[in-house]
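Figure S7 source data.
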Amino acid sequence: MKALQDKIIKDGKVLSTEVLKVDSFLNHQIDPELMQQIGQEFADLYKDAGLTKIVTIESSGIAPAVMAGLILGIPVVFARKRKSVTLTDNFYSAEVYSFTKQVSSDISVSKDFLNKDDVVLIIDDFLANGEAAKGLLSIVEQAGATTSGIGIVIEKGFQPGGQALRDQGHRVNSLAIISSLENGKVQFA
Ligand code: 5GP
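Tokens for the predicted guanosine-5'-monophosphate complex:
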């Protein structure tokens, strides 16, 4: 997706050979117009998939997921990173090791919002080692629902998550795939 690549080049900050900071349009401040274009891309890719729901993870997956959900006309469910008192024991949960925070935490989704008849597109902002995607896949599986695919805004292709998910037979659509962050420069695959 050209507009996304241009934005990454213009406003992305390479923090290390492994981490890209995109706080100015995706992870802190949000560029709604770009999010709308991203939502449209996901909607075009999955318009014939018979989706009933989008599942993402708070907080940075929510903006692109909501835009896709708006265009596809389906609800968006986001996994919470903390157990809320209002979720009680009526939830599916999974443990996710955070790439950026380097700690494990539980994510959970209420059983009220996902069931065996759902056909799900999983959306997240970044794909690195695939831990977040794995946790979301587990939650969809616990619900007995079907995962149609995984939509990623920025995949770091030099990290193993994307390959592992594709090897497991999942459809993974990444709108930008970064092949390297060496020498402070973003290179696309
Ligand atoms: P994974 O679970 O695939 O290892 O990592 C994906 C998660 O870690 C995403 O939900 C995202 O929040 C975070 N993440 C991974 N790599 C990066 C990165 O380079 N930059 C930012 N901002 N977040 C990242």
